[in-house]
């Protein structure tokens, strides 16, 4: 199973969106070099307010480009980096991968999936009504989160658009993704 990096984004300041870059460098155990969310402990403001000493399981945010077409059908215009992701992918069912899946990205970088992004109200600040497109309840009442996945960096390296992503599933039984 493999996919492709379609865009990379980072921002050294707290901002909802992240500008696209020609490349980003992942740092083992930290995240994206120069990104405001990089660090051993949590950097997302809501998590810091709860407990600033908890481990950062949200070092690198990945989002599937296919989501942009899906929300586009509902009238929303979203492009890579707009929802704060670091790596935009194509050709992978990110949301269907289990916890502990390893993604080898490009020639060097390796990340391990920790869980689902828990989208917040800032998404509606970006485009009113968009939050209901990326988090909602299905007919059975189950909460569905589509705003990407979170990961930690196991091996650092440079990541560029066009890089191949190779998937290595963990030994079973597989645990489905939950919010982190």
Automatic annotation (TrEMBL):
Superkingdom assignment: Bacteria
Gene3D superfamilies in UniProt: PK beta-barrel domain-like (2.40.33.20)
Limits of the MOSC domain: 18-168
Coiled coil: none
Name of one Pfam family that matches: MOSC
MF GO annotations: catalytic activity; molybdenum ion binding; pyridoxal phosphate binding
SUPFAM superfamilies: PK beta-barrel domain-like
Name of the molecule in the record: MOSC domain-containing protein
């Amino acid at each position: 199973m493999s996919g492709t990096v379609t865009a990379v984004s980072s921002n050294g300041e707290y901002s909802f969106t992240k500008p696209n870059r020609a490349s980003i460098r992942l740092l083992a155990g930290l995240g994206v070099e120069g990104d405001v969310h990089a660090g051993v402990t949590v950097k997302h403001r809501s998590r810091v307010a709860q407990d600033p000493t908890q481990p950062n399981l949200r070092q690198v945010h990945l989002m599937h480009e296919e989501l942009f077409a899906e929300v586009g059908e509902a009238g929303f215009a979203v492009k890579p980096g707009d929802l704060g992701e670091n790596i935009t992918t194509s050709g992978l069912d990110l949301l269907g991968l289990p916890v502990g899946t390893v993604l080898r990205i490009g020639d060097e970088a390796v990340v391990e999936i920790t869980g689902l992004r828990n989208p917040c109200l800032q998404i509606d600040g970006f485009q009113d009504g968009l939050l209901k497109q990326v988090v909602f309840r299905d007919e059975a009442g189950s909460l569905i989160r589509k705003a990407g996945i979170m990961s930690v960096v196991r091996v650092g390296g440079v990541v560029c658009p066009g890089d191949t992503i190779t998937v290595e599933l963990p030994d079973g039984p597989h645990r489905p993704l939950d919010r982190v």
